[in-house]
Structures are given as C-alpha cells and as structure tokens.
Amino acid sequence: MASSTTTRNKAAGPQDLEVRCAIVLETISSAAATSEAQSKNLKLVFVTGGPGSGKGTQCNKIVEHFGFEHLSAGELLRAEQNSDGEIGKMIKGLINEGKLVPSEMTVKLILNAMSKCSNNKILIDGFPRNDENREVWDRVAGLKPEFIIFITSSEEVMQNRLLSRNEGRDDDNLETIRKRFKLFNEQTLPVIKHYESIAAVQKVNLQNLNIWYTFGFPQLLNLYC
Ligand SMILES: Nc1ncnc2c1ncn2[C@@H]1O[C@H](COP(=O)(O)OP(=O)(O)O)[C@@H](O)[C@H]1O
Ligand SMILES: O=c1ccn([C@@H]2O[C@H](COP(=O)(O)OP(=O)(O)O)[C@@H](O)[C@H]2O)c(=O)[nH]1
Questions:
Q1: Separation of 149 CA from ligand 1 center, angstroms?
Q2: C-alpha 183 chain-centroid distance
Q3: Out of 34, 72, 98, 153, which could bridge 179 as a Cys pair, Cβ 3.0 to 4.6 Å?
Q4: ipTM
Q5: Does 136 contact ligand 2 (Cβ within 6 A)?
C-alpha cells in the first residue's frame, strides 16, 4: 500500500488533485463499459517489454495475421496529450519526463477504447507498467489477461532502435530514454514477475531477430484465444 502511494505521488504531483478527482469521477462511468466488455467474451493479451523492445511492431503483425485489435496505452495517452487544458499538459509533461501518467487516466482511456471495439480479441500494449497500474486495472476493470507476451532485448539495442525510429516522439531522446529504462527495471519488471505467478507469460528475446516473430505466436494464440 505504502509503495503504491509513493508511486502515485511521484507520478502526479500535488498540484494535480483537482485533475485526479475529475479522472476518478470519469473512471466510475467507465465501469459500465467494463460490464459490457465482460459480456462480449473478451480475450485480452497484455504485451509488455522495455521501451523500444518491439511491442508495437509485433502487435501490428499479430493484428494482421490473427485478427486482433491493438490498443497501445502510450498511443492513447499521446492522443490525449493534445486535448485542451490542464489534463493534456499534465500528460505531455509526464511523458516527456519519462514518468507514468496517473493510473486512473490510463485505465479510463483503455476501457473507453475497448468499449468501442467490436472485436473480442484485444492486445493491450505497454500496460500495466507498475504495480499501481495493475491494482487500478484490477479494481476498475477486473479483467484478467489470457496470457502475457514479454519482449526482451538489451538496453543497447533498444536505445539504438529508439534513437533511430523517427516517429517524431519528444520522449525518444537519450535523457528521457534512460529514465524510461530505469522505470521499466524498477517498476515494470516486478509487475511482470507478479503475472508469472498468476498467468502464462511468454518471454521472447528479439534482440537478434530482425524480423517479426509472429511465427512463434500461433500456438499460444490458438491455445488461449
Ligand atoms: N526485431 C526487430 N529488429 C529490428 N528492429 C526492430 C525490431 N522490432 C522493432 N524494431 C524497430 O525498433 C523500433 C522500436 O520498435 P517499436 O515496435 O516501436 O517498440 P516499442 O513499441 O516496444 O517501443 C522501431 O523503429 C521498429 O521498427
Ligand atoms: O500505461 C502507460 C503507458 C505509457 N505511459 C507513458 O507513455 C510513454 C510511452 O509509452 P509507449 O508504450 O508508447 O512507448 P515505449 O516507452 O514502450 O517505447 C511512457 O514512457 C509513459 O510516460 C504511461 O504513463 N502509462
């Protein structure tokens, strides 16, 4: 409990109290989306891995070959950062600092996006990133993933990929990349460890694989989804 509070304070800052309250209120209404989601026989797969490990790349291939819908938490947040007002500014600031956006906001965006999906097979890319993310997800969404894909690579390879991916992202600079790696090691790896005790985690090293890995996923996807 104490560690979630610390993470929460670090991510949001005291000036965001008003913003946080608004988010919590909106989150309650997205609980309605959750019960609808449950009745759709949803199959969720979480896709995790360090920044630049290739999560988005593999997700695009899985969508192409296995008919999943791809929801990237980072992309949903980047779309939201352009919204007017304090919330957009807050998200932009946190992403550019390599910090996490408050969990309520991310969960709300994922649930809203899920409620618009007609597909019942959904990849959730880049979430949850820390224990507090997972707690809020479990509390608000209450949906367990069928399994988790965990993509690994060395930091050197991931850093080179991020610095040359040319997507115009402000957070793909050396200083922020180092902060994102630190956050991944300190906060995301423990969440993956947690999932290893309650769900199947498929770990795939794509460091030397210059191609997509879809050929490795069919058994899993057929088995679980
Ligand atoms: N297996 C791979 N081999 C070489 N380059 C890759 C591989 N997977 C992804 N990339 C490249 O690395 C960069 C980061 O990949 P991306 O899928 O955006 O990572 P993430 O979503 O994990 O941040 C992109 O430019 C992508 O084209
Ligand atoms: O659940 C999430 C997912 C992403 N982010 C923010 O969005 C950034 C980019 O995440 P994304 O998954 O798009 O990229 P990656 O860092 O994996 O390359 C992260 O560094 C965080 O600042 C967040 O706060 N919560």
A1: 15
A2: 13
A3: 98
A4: 0.98
A5: no
